Amino acid sequence: xxxxxxxxxxxxxxxxxxxxxxxxxxxxxxxxxxxxxxxxxxxxxxxxxxxxxxxxxxxxxxxxxxxxxxxxxxxxxxxxxxxxxxxxxxxxxxxxxxxxxxxxxxxxxxxxxxxxxxxxxxxxxxxxxxxxxxxxxxxxxxxxxxxxxxxxxxxxxxxxxxxxxxxxxxxxxxxx
Length: 176
Hints:
The protein is mostly helical.
């Protein structure tokens, strides 16, 4: 079964009247832990690929570090939009890198990462709160990287950081 299928399946199982219900995803802490584990595994696997080339066209990656104090002061919708911006940039970086990597191991890991990041992007786009649908065009802080491993590191940090805390914040409201 392709990676990311669990995420997509759990999303599809919880669609209600055209809106995704994040309840099951955020209330079952094992799911986010599974995604963190998968992110770590992908990062480790790509690190074991032999002779990964540097990217000739640098990948533009989101800056995913954050202050927990500032994060807590934001609304869930603001957090969602920020994560969507990060994921959109990450999906673009992964797609660009996939086109530059011909080496089997690296290309396989990039395809897997692309599927995971795209699944989260689609999932979060369907969550609906106080505003309308997400529209691209945000400009989060970013950096350029030529190392493929940086893409995986950024993804792991995003899942382990903002996404995990976002799910935890949602759980406070949804899992009573």
